[in-house]
Specification:
heterodimer; A: alpha/beta; 6-stranded mixed sheet; 27% strand; B: mainly alpha; globular
Chain lengths: 358, 271
């Protein structure tokens, strides 16, 4: 069975496709029973509840008609606040969850009708530390999963060494899994996803619990080695907007189960806030100067804030950051003591907050 | 061949894991010897009381009767409880993310437990032969193997059904509760089901005993230890086979349905 799936998977993988992941109207609803609320927590009420059914069901629309395509060899960021539906979407793509509506093709296989082929095509990092055996070493744990992926003896040990090296765990290879630190356990999660050398990786917050250096190393490995050199397609779920800005070719922002923005990081930022701001910290700010700044071509608005230090901050919203020298000259001409000047560009973090607030 | 490779992966994982608890591993083996001796001793002590219910087994003594019952109980319990281990949330989600097929997953998860039960069987047989007059030369081994296999199939059916229900209920399932509660009382591990008629003249418990597949297994395996073959136990063997076929199909169907339900409602990873 495993060999057959791998064989099919290799055939599919050998034919590069424009969009290894295609999602069309994917919808997931969860119907849950009403849970106990604060009023139900009295001992007598709890006993009563044991013998009486809790009435009422709640339907949550976790993913609502989501559609997008991920290009071959692309590192695609799936962003959004907690509860936006990112993990649910990832779980549907790796066939752990069945959608209520819509379709998705992963490596050319339908997630509903060909779940086995889908699983053979993807490496998945999901919840932290699941499915490990504490008293087996990292190598023994990976050997178990490698065998389930059908990786055969001549290759299996070499492949385990390769993935351990990729995630920086070579020196911990023979340590028990339960002795690893939280970050190292996360790296082992990533190593397991890489084991079958899949063409597609679905990574749900892979850098969570990693220290800054390890997180940066992992991002570089994913971007440079796996995406650029090996041409893998990666869906990267994260809350870390700096991370998304650094590595993602395109991003989508999810909110309440739907997509609120989709495009390159710059596009998404411009979509939400097309303008930049030039911020000057000055000792003295004559009112006439503000009027003259506002009259400059390309300036949209100005604002003045008095800082606790006694200085003032002038924020000039402009269409183009190239206006900075002219703004500085105008300030100096009016006798303002300019202590510092910076250009504030819109960030993905601001974009996400704006798109998902309310 | 590939499926065997997958099953071996599970076996190796469990073997490494269990043997890493060295003291527990060694003392578990010592326990097997002690339990075998305990059953033999209990049988010897209760021989006069048991004798009148053991006429179907000819010359078999009560010590052998108990040793066989207890060692088979290990096999039956493993078959019943092993599928449940696959339903643990973290485990099932991770395995489902590999191309491993469901039969390999289930069989693989149980392989170590059967190896351990097999070891238990060897120890009990050795102790019974050495100290309590168990005669392995009289055993009809082919019939023994057939009955055990059919019995395991029937218990798998129940085990798979119970693990399926537990996928949905998470903490409790009626199948294991029923078997766990009534099995020792009625199925004939420690005494023949006929003995139940003395404490329950209505015959309800006796009737219940013959609704459980393990009662047939204990009865027929004991018969093989006094040299009886398939032809001597055709009726109970056919009954057990029918039970096994029905329970296995029902178990598998229930498992598929419950798995689908969990995948739909997203509760596969819940505890």
């Amino acid at each position: 069975m495993i060999a057959a799936l791998n064989k099919r998977h290799k055939l599919a993988a050998s034919e590069p496709m424009d969009y290894p992941v295609e999602i069309e109207g994917l919808t997931k609803r969860f119907t849950t029973k009403r849970t106990l609320n604060e009023d139900d927590l009295g001992f007598a009420k709890l006993i009563k509840r044991l013998f009486r059914k809790i009435k009422g069901k709640e339907t949550i629309l976790a993913v609502n008609g989501v559609s997008f395509k991920i290009k071959d060899g692309e590192l695609f960021g799936l962003l959004g606040p907690n509860g936006a539906g990112k993990t649910t979407l990832t779980k549907m793509l790796c066939t752990l969850l069945w959608p209520n509506a819509g379709t998705a093709q992963v490596n050319g296989h339908d997630i509903r009708s060909e779940p086995g082929q889908v699983r053979a095509s993807v490496g998945t990092v999901l919840d932290v530390y699941m499915g490990w055996y504490g008293r087996l070493s990292c190598r023994q744990n990976l050997l178990f999963y490698a065998q389930l992926f059908g990786i055969r003896p001549p290759r299996v040990r070499r492949r385990i060494s390769e993935v351990l090296e990729l995630v920086g765990l070579t020196d911990k290879a023979d340590d028990w899994q339960q002795k690893l630190s939280s970050g190292m356990k996360r790296k082992l999660d990533v190593a397991r996803a890489l084991l079958p050398d899949p063409p597609i990786l679905l990574l749900d917050e892979p850098t969570i619990q990693l220290d800054p250096k390890s997180a940066r190393d992992l991002r570089r490995t994913m971007k440079d080695e796996l995406c650029r050199n090996q041409g893998k397609t990666i869906l990267w779920t994260t809350h870390n907007m700096h991370e998304a800005e650094e590595i993602c070719d395109r991003v989508t922002i999810m909110h309440r189960g739907g997509i609120v923005a989709l495009g390159g990081p710059e596009e998404v930022k411009r979509f939400v806030s097309p303008n930049e701001s030039i911020v000057l910290e000055v000792g003295r700010a004559p009112q006439v100067m503000l009027g003259e700044l506002e009259a400059l071509e390309g300036v949209i608005s100005t604002s003045l804030t008095n800082l606790p230090s006694g200085q003032s901050e002038i924020k000039v919203q402009v269409r183009d950051g190239d206006l900075a020298p002219r703004i500085a000259q105008t300030a100096i001409r009016h006798g303002a003591e300019v202590h510092s000047m910076r250009v504030e560009k819109p960030t993905l973090e601001e974009a996400m907050i704006k798109l998902t607030e309310g | 061949m590939t499926d065997l490779y997958g099953i071996y992966a599970f076996f190796r994982r469990d073997a490494v894991n269990v043997s890493s608890y060295k003291l527990n591993f060694v003392f578990s083996i010592i326990s097997m010897f002690v339990w075998a001796f305990t059953m033999g001793a209990l049988g010897t002590i209760t021989q006069p009381a048991q004798a009148r219910y053991m006429q179907a087994y000819g010359s078999m003594n009560a010590a052998t009767f108990l040793i066989i019952g207890f060692m088979l109980n290990q096999f039956m319990q493993e078959s019943q409880y092993a599928p449940q281990s696959i339903a643990s949330p973290g485990n099932i989600e991770r395995i489902l993310l590999t191309p491993c097929s469901m039969p390999v997953f289930i069989l693989g998860s149980m392989s170590w437990r059967y190896f351990w039960s097999g070891l238990n069987l060897l120890v009990f047989t050795f102790m019974g032969t050495t100290f309590f007059g168990l005669n392995i030369l009289a055993v009809d081994w082919p019939t023994f193997a057939v009955v055990l296999l059919i019995g395991i199939m029937a218990m798998w059916g129940l085990g798979i059904m119970s693990s399926a229900i537990q996928l949905v209920t998470k903490q409790w399932n009626p199948v294991n509760w029923f078997l766990g509660t009534f099995s020792f009382l009625v199925s004939g591990v420690f005494y023949s089901p006929e003995a139940l008629l003395t404490i329950d003249p209505t015959g309800m418990l006796y009737g219940l005993a013959w609704c459980l597949p393990q009662t047939y297994v204990y009865h027929m395996i004991r018969l093989t230890f006094v040299g009886k073959g398939i032809l001597d136990m055709l009726y109970p063997l056919l009954t057990l086979s029918a039970m096994a076929a029905m329970l296995f199909c029902m178990g598998w169907l229930t498992f598929r349905l419950c798995m689908r339900k969990c995948q739909l409602e997203g509760s596969l990873g819940w505890v």
